[in-house]
């Protein structure tokens, strides 16, 4: 039987290169997640408020991001805006901008959902106990919101990680592109490398995302009294 | 209840409008040639780094070896450019369809990615003197060789790479042939090996290399379309870099640089036979 | 922006839209079918199959569609499994979507109160009848918003089909940019066509969600 191409991964620095590629994707995901969570919290608090204009603007923003595929947004930012404004935007910045733009909207919606899901009676009861507004928020609302939010935001992070596989399309050398390069450089000696290498990339994503997803599920279960 | 629905509907429609306006605004704004998207030779030298767009999955012209280093005929030339400019090289991995885009938006200073000179492309970018000859070729599996385009049935698909001359040529001259398009060399070649198409059309240099390196394939049509050349390209209007490159290519002709390049990078694949047909020395096509 | 170019490209985008919709809907139906079967297997705690379903859902929820497609389209032929690009597209979308749909339907099933099943059985229905006439209709109702969100997600994900040579909207845009470098026109058309495809689904989602909530709670 012909080899299925796992062996090419042990040639030279190939496996390390794949991991490096994975790190490129992970770096973009981590930065985008951090930005999204920070801005999203801010956004969500604004959204849960009473201001209709702010709510309207946010709605439009959320709809736009929900309907447009992330790949389209990547192309618009990376190719469209650089052409129009003539700035020099690296692929990595473009990716971080797009994923943060998208993640912030999603996170904002999660925060808003968590905030308005706290029943009004919680506020009333806390006030009845004589707490002032600051303490109500700090000791009653915030802990509950955070508990609801943490599993949801962890899930959002895995979504961002999975979506960063698209950065290959704007020319970033991440794990899939490295996989293609390895397959290409070894085409003559191991024609079946495509199987082994793509299988390994498949597993790599699984190994990264699965534990994070499990952690979210665990927290969700534990905190759902 | 109704009110909320209407609000959401109108939000959605508004977002639609917003994007259109935004894009339309962008479109009309693009007319003014604001800051040029390119860097002159002095600016490149001052920054100490030159960005060169090459293929990373097109062996033996531009690919990455198992140590993560760029290699190939184009890359060998790129290293020399970096050395003669006295700057470091930042290789940018490009796909065929992105090459013009990368130059126009200033993401690279030079494209050295097996870029065939065509009149359409020359409207968008500036080509320096050529360093290689090329035509189109079609490779097919040896048990079903395609020696003429008439052999391609109405349901057969020919693999091409998006943004290459093969694509444009077949689309223009043989619109009835069904094309199966990929955006990377690696994807196209793997699909061809997997027999997703009856043949693969590309630069003849590339298909010849493929047939030599991989058993069971024959280049049934070794030359198709016009004889073209491959040259470095710079952003339209970047005269300082263009003239520098032309002088460089002429000067390198004195030392037979591209023959040496061939011997270092292509000899293993093509053997001696193709050296004189492929290489263009000093920018002069014989 | 050049209107002449837009007019010239319009038919290409239209064809791409039809292709995207065709593959997209096959994928969505496949996803619903897979999702339903998986949700039932989990619900009825069928041994062995349950473990397989869980592994499948875990694997496909935790990997990107792009990687899944690369594996199905480029890697599987190396071990003798050769599928057409269109089939791969639908299959990939169906497998990814199935994993999401099964979770949505499962939580829909879980949200139907246990007492409903007990009541149905005390009325003399057998387990199948209770599921068919009492549990299932309610579960679907609960799941509709989630299902539609999944549909939008899946139709958006079709944008990665371009990597396996399917001439979908994304590919058409990339291809035209590569050949003729009319970036702005191409990107504008791309945005418009995605809106044409997804806006109706998104609106349908809101309307249905409202309706269903209305059916459940009244106004």
Structural overview:
The complex is a heterotrimer of chains A (225), B (286) and C (219). Chain A is an all-alpha fold and 225 residues long. Chain A has a single domain, classed as MetI-like (MetI-like fold), CATH 1.10.3720. Chain A contains eight helices and no strands. The model of chain A has no long low-confidence stretch (mean pLDDT 89). By secondary structure, chain B is α/β, with parallel strands linked by helices. Chain B has two domains: 41-131 and 231-275, 3-Layer(aba) Sandwich (D-Maltodextrin-Binding Protein, domain 2), CATH 3.40.190; 135-228, D-Maltodextrin-Binding Protein, domain 2. The longest helix of chain B has 28 residues, at 2-29. In chain B, 51% of the residues are buried. The model of chain B is unreliable at 26-34 (pLDDT under 50). With 219 residues, chain C is mainly alpha-helical. Chain C has helices at 3-43, 49-61, 65-75, 85-110, 114-122, 127-157, 169-180, 183-217. The N and C termini of chain C lie far apart (48 Å). The interface between A and C is large, with 38 and 37 residues.
Give a nutshell description of this structure:
The complex is a heterotrimer of chains A (225), B (286) and C (219). Chain A has 225 residues and is an all-alpha fold.
The succession of helices and strands of chain B, N to C, reads HHEEEEHEHEHEEEHEHEHEEHHHH
Ranges of chain B where pLDDT stays below 50 over 5 or more residues in a row are 26-34
Total domains of chain A = 1
How many domain units of chain B?
A: 2
Instruction: Based on the coordinates given, report the CATH architecture of the largest domain in chain B.
Output: 3-Layer(aba) Sandwich
Helix proportion range of chain B: 40-55%
* Proportion of strand residues of chain A: under 5%
Tell me the distance between the termini of chain B: 78 Å
CATH class of the largest domain in chain B: Alpha Beta
| Count of individual helical segments of chain B | 12
Gyration radius from CA atoms of chain A, angstroms: 22 Å
For the largest sheet of chain B, list the strands in their spatial order.
5-1-6-13-7
Number of strands of chain A: 0
Largest sheet of chain B: 5 strands, mixed
In the CATH hierarchy, the architecture of chain A is Orthogonal Bundle
């Amino acid at each position: 039987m012909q080899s299925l191409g796992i062996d090419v991964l042990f040639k030279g620095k190939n496996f390390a290169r794949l991991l490096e590629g994975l790190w490129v994707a992970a770096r973009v995901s981590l930065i985008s997640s951090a930005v999204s969570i920070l801005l999203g919290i801010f956004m969500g608090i604004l959204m849960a408020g009473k201001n209709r204009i702010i709510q309207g603007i946010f709605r439009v923003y959320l709809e736009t991001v929900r309907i447009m595929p992330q790949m389209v947004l990547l192309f618009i930012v990376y190719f469209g805006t650089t052409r129009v404004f003539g700035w020099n935007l690296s692929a990595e910045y473009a990716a971080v901008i797009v994923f943060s733009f998208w993640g912030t909207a999603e996170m904002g919606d999660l925060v808003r959902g968590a905030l308005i899901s706290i029943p009004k009676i919680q506020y009333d009861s806390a006030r009845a106990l004589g707490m002032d507004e600051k303490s109500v928020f700090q000791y009653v609302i915030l802990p509950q919101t955070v508990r609801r939010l943490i599993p949801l935001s962890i899930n959002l992070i895995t979504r961002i990680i999975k979506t960063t596989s698209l950065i290959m399309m704007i020319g970033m050398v991440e794990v899939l592109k490295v996989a293609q390069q390895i397959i290409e450089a070894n085409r003559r000696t191991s024609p079946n490398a495509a199987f082994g290498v793509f299988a390994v990339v498949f597993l790599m994503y699984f190994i990264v995302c699965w534990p994070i997803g499990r952690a979210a599920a665990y927290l969700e279960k534990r905190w759902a009294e | 209840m109704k009110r909320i629905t209407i609000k959401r509907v109108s939000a959605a429609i508004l977002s639609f409008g917003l994007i259109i306006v935004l894009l339309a605004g962008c479109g009309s704004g693009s007319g003014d040639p604001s800051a040029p998207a390119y860097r002159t030779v002095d600016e490149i030298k001052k920054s100490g780094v030159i960005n060169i767009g090459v293929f990373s999955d097109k062996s033996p012209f531009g690919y990455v070896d198992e140590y993560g280093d760029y290699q190939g005929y184009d890359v060998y030339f790129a290293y020399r450019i970096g050395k003669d400019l006295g700057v470091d090289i930042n290789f940018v991995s490009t796909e065929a369809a992105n090459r013009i885009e990368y130059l126009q938006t200033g993401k690279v200073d030079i494209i050295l990615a097996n870029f065939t000179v065509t009149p359409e492309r020359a409207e968008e970018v500036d080509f320096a003197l050529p360093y290689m000859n090329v035509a189109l070729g079609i490779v097919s599996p040896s048990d079903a060789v395609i020696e003429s385009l008439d052999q391609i049935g109405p349901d057969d698909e020919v693999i091409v790479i998006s943004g290459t001359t093969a694509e444009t040529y077949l689309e223009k001259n043989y619109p009835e042939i069904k094309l199966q398009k990929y955006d990377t060399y690696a994807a196209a070649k793997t699909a061809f090996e997997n027999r997703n198409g009856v043949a693969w059309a590309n630069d003849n240099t590339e298909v010849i290399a493929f047939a030599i390196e991989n058993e069971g394939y024959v280049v049934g049509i070794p030359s198709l379309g016009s004889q073209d050349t491959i040259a470095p390209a710079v952003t339209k209007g970047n005269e300082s870099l263009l003239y520098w490159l032309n002088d460089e290519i002429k000067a390198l002709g004195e030392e037979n640089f591209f023959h040496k390049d061939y011997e270092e990078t292509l000899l293993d694949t093509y053997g001696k036979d193709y050296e004189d047909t492929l290489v263009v020395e000093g920018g002069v096509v014989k | 922006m050049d209107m002449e170019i837009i007019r010239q490209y319009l038919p290409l985008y239209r064809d791409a839209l039809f292709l995207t919709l065709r593959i997209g809907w096959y994928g969505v139906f496949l996803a619903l079918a897979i999702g339903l079967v998986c949700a039932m297997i989990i619900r009825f705690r069928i041994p062995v199959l349950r473990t397989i379903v869980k592994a499948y859902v875990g694997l496909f929820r935790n990997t990107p569609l792009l990687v899944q497609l690369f594996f199905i389209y480029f890697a599987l032929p190396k071990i003798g499994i050769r599928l057409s690009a269109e089939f791969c597209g639908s299959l990939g979308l169906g497998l990814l979507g199935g994993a999401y749909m099964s979770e949505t339907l499962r939580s829909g099933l879980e949200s139907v109160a246990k007492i409903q099943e007990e009541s149905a059985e005390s009325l003399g229905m057998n387990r199948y009848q209770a599921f068919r006439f009492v549990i299932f209709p309610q579960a679907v109702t609960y799941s509709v918003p989630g299902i539609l969100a999944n549909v939008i997600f899946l139709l958006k994900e079709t944008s990665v089909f371009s990597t396996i040579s399917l001439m979908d909207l994304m590919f058409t845009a990339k291809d035209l940019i590569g050949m003729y470098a009319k970036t702005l026109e191409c990107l504008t058309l791309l945005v418009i066509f995605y809106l044409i495809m997804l806006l109706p689904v998104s609106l349908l989602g809101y309307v249905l969600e409202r309706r269903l909530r209305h059916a459940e709670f009244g106004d």
